[in-house]
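Deliverable D4.2, example record:
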Amino acid sequence: MAATFVHEGPWNETTRQHPATKMMEAITTEFDSTNKLNPKWYAADTSFEMADGTKHHGVETVLEVTKNTYNAMTKHYHEPGSITVTETDDGYELRGKAKLYGNLADGPPSGKNQVEDSLGRKWDVVIPGDWVNWYVKDDGADNGMGMLIKKSRVNAESQVKGWGSGY
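Output generated by the structure prediction step:
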């Protein structure tokens, strides 16, 4: 049986001990602080499945679709909830639940108050979601982590409620 890693809560020293969660923290921290997606995290033939079942292929397309998903937000923060990682033949399968906090150019939606993350910061919206990433080991990966995201699938409340185009 494959080894499984389970974690509940924020990124910390425990999550940094597993290569898949260490990489996921690096990706989300970089994206949240720069609002730029770095192709170094993805395999050239990566694929991305959105909550509505739409599939996108190739790193350039996946990065563009993801960027467009976040365009409505002037700033965002991914707050991890729970993560389960299972070793596969060629890497890892990471399943996670998180909250995406964001600020909108026009402020919170009409009639809504700002929400607070676990660090006490105020945001215009919070979107609960879950995702699956499939990592493939690659010793030549430019990111220094020895693996790349081969495939991702995201499920998020935002699509059900009609907000945004993805997350």
